[in-house]
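Morning F.,

Quick status update on the modeling queue. The single chain you submitted on Monday has been processed. Sequence for confirmation:
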Amino acid sequence: MKTLAQIQATLQHAVRAGEPAPDGLLRGSAQGLAIYQHAYRARLREALADNHPALAQAVGDKGFAALAAAYLEAEPPTEPSIRWYGHRLAAFMDGWAELPHPALADLARLDWALRQAFDAAAHPLLGPSELAALRPDEWADLRLRLQPSVQRLDLHWAVGPAWHALNAARAAGQEAELSEPQARAHSLLVWRSGLQPHWRSLAEDEAAALQALLQEPALADWLAAQGEAALPQAVGWLQAWSAEGLLAVA
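Structure tokens below.
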């Protein structure tokens, strides 16, 4: 006789795989199992769409259902929380033969990065008022770090205009009119300010300065590393990062 744990494992496999239950597992009709199998896939599809709202809107209900089914087949959920379902969707889409346009994978990356930013932890903010309140003797030893929500996102397609159009159409309850995305390698900065995720373009020199800040968290060392000629630009970045809510005290 099977143990309860064995019965539960067998039933779980049948639900997740969409296969008929082994003989003797169920009493009566198998309709109840079919309901669970449908609900399992429907809930995962909903979670995937919730984590990728712009992508789901761009491909439509039918297209997203096909994508979700293919992804579930290739990447069954392994995380204990449904919140993290879809973390490999963009990578899967890169190799999916039925993808309508390769730019959709980058749209998925932007969706996921924004959701990651929304859920990220928060360190005490070093905003403009906190910077202004620092005494001169505190600047030399000040050590900075980026908020956990801050991410650099490298993309191959200019999906920003499509994201804005989709977001505006969704807010208005309308269909978005999308133009053909342009191939363009570039980087975006993604972060959260308060409770709202944000993104913007990130130039290479600013990206390098942010990376240097991670390696040289002491503000005095970081400013010195920028060089005297670049000091005005470095101070401008520091002020902008502070105003955007990117910085925290290490």
